[in-house]
Amino acid sequence: MTNKRTIQELRDKFEGHVYLKFNTQNEYDEFLRAAEAEGFKFGDRMPTENIGKPWDIISVLDNKKLSFCGSMSHMAYASGADNVHRVDYAKYVNSEEPYEF
Hints:
Blueprint: H1 7-13, E1 17-21, H2 25-37, E2 57-61, E3 65-68, H3 71-79, E4 84-88, H4 89-93
Parallel strand pairs: 1-4
Antiparallel strand pairs: 1-2, 2-3
């Protein structure tokens, strides 16, 4: 059995913007639990406060911070710029390649 990759390992791997994409509500809720276990927060709120609330893209910031992506972040996500890293969360956490797209 292999250990799942962590969110902090992902943040440490890339410079620039790291966006996580979720394909299902279950993936997103799993991410929220993992993020909270690793000490990440949305401002002063715990990630698990959002379980069951749909969201498609989350930005992983420095210092264990997370951010919901509004319209401007969605445009950055879609831009394909060199400093924008788009990651399929399920592929990343399960060590599937390629997870960045």
